[in-house]
Amino acid sequence: MRASDGEHHLAGAERLVAGEEVAEVTAGLARRALNAAGGESVEIVCNIEKVDTADIHYATLPCLHPYNVKDYHEGRQLAKRLLEETGVANNVATEALNMLTAGPGPNKTVMRGAVILDVHMGERMERNPARGVRVTRMDLTAECHAKQSEVLAKAGLKHRRVIEALTLSGKVLSCPGIVAELCWSDDPEYTAGYVASPAKGYRRISELKPAGQAIGGRIFFVDFGNVELSEVVNYLEKKSVLFNQPGRVFPETIWSPEDA
Ligand code: AMP
User: Fold this and answer.
1) Regions of the chain with pLDDT less than 70
2) How many Å lie between the centroid of ligand 1 and the Cα of residue 49?
3) Which of 6, 126, 161, 220 is the least buried, fewest Cβ under 10 Å from its Cβ?
4) Please, what sign has the CA dihedral across residues 63, 69, 75, 77?
């Protein structure tokens, strides 16, 4: 589902469910879009596609490391450090942070999907800079959802956005060629974000933007050494990934720029 006011993206969500759940889940997504619009006029697009159960890849969610920072300035310093640790060059990491700060879409707007960045050249590869690439066809089994929700709640991370972002990122990290992901929300009230990588998992940063700011986005850093763009896009948009095992949630790290 994706919803907009005709101009701006308001809400989006992806599900992967059994046939008998489709009607109920679709109604829930429509309700969510209407709530996001807060009574304003809204355009809702719900697209339902049939997937072959034999093609579903079952996986474990990434582990989550929460980092607590004083403010978004520190958060962005940490994000840069974590990106560099995964192999993103200093100038490419700086460029990526500037891109999300400004608004990655045309005329500094929010995109409907994600930027794909060549991790070596720092070049944007997505064909449509307004749409980007939308990751779809991923979800958690009911049992995995219950278990993951419980561990997240114990860690004080009950917000619906945490489990949804962890799911999206879990699929991204399983994609061939992915080196890292950087994200912060376009929801003005939600200031947390993350840097994720296949080796280090999902590292949540408590502050990555100032409250009240409606600019955010996602950047996928890809090493195109052994993979074609079409393969990456096809995986992100078409491969069905269902998480049936929760990821571990580590204790919070209080971080400051003086830390090594
Ligand atoms: P959100 O975390 O929902 O606030 O989304 C933040 C940004 O991530 C959005 O502005 C989009 O640019 C991007 N995004 C949201 N959903 C997806 C998705 N399914 N696939 C790729 N990018 C997405």
Assistant:
1) 260
2) 20
3) 6
4) negative
